[in-house]
Write a structure and sequence with these properties.
The complex is a heterodimer of chains A (about 110) and B (about 110). Chain A has about 110 residues and is mainly β. Chain A contains no helices and eleven strands. The chains are: A mainly beta (about 110), B mainly beta (about 110). Chains A and B meet through strand 9 and strand 10 of A and strand 4, strand 5, strand 9 and strand 10 of B.
Chain lengths: ~110, ~110
């Protein structure tokens, strides 16, 4: 266990659905990250939050909407997704942004039909 | 812009063999480099983190080296075991405030 949990572990949704992914870290960290891992592609950074403030948006489409209500929780709200958005979505945390020793959650396997 | 490459994409070895996984990066001004392990359908587990001022780090049977001048890092696994079977990812950052850039990984199979 890395101290980072993600729910749900698996999600199947239609293109018109709205769903949310949740990440929680129990490490006392102040930076949290969303990554996307697609088949045969490198891990792609999506968003970074440092002390609850969004500091990085890696040109992510607006159908993905992050939320960080406090340093321990991070959400990714999904709406009107496309089949090509199907991937493993990984959350990570670190002491602060700039501390690149990141701890990852188990991921949410998302399938968009 | 930093780019990270891992070759080979897949590797199969018999149990007990010592092996080396390779990672190359394009920008020698690397801040740190990290090796991760990922089991199928799971998240990443951090194995070793090497700062730019360091040349290697060791943890148990694992040893990671960093050669900035040649743009290479290696992960050495001694006396491999079937439980070492996983995908190994390396990732580098050019500064403390720039994102980690990941390679595609090397999928390792250790055959009993």
């Amino acid at each position: 266990e890395t101290g980072v949990t993600q729910t749900p572990r698996h999600l199947v949704m239609g293109m018109t659905n709205k769903k949310s992914l949740k990440c929680e870290q129990h490490l006392g960290h102040n930076a949290m990250y969303w990554y996307k891992q697609s088949a045969k592609k490198p891990l792609e950074l999506m968003f970074v939050y440092n002390f609850k403030e969004q500091t990085e948006n890696n040109s992510v489409p607006s159908r993905f909407s992050p939320e960080c209500p406090n340093s321990s929780h991070l959400f990714l709200h999904l709406h009107t997704l496309q089949p090509e958005d199907s991937a493993l979505y990984l959350c990570a945390s670190s002491v602060r942004q700039g501390d690149n020793e990141q701890f990852f959650g188990p991921g949410t396997r998302l399938t968009v039909l | 812009k930093q780019e990270v490459t891992q070759i080979p994409a897949a590797l199969s070895v018999p149990e007990g063999e010592n092996l080396v996984l390779n990672c190359s990066f394009t920008d020698s001004a690397i801040y740190n480099l990290q090796w991760f392990r990922q089991d199928p359908g799971k998240g990443l587990t951090s194995l070793l983190l090497i700062q730019s001022s360091q040349r290697e780090q060791t943890s148990g049977r694992l040893n990671a080296s960093l050669d900035k001048s040649s743009g290479r890092s290696t992960l050495y696994i001694a006396a491999s075991q079937p439980g070492d079977s996983a995908t190994y990812l390396c990732a580098g950052a050019n500064s403390g405030n720039t994102p980690l850039v990941f390679g595609k990984g090397t999928r390792l199979s250790v055959i009993a």
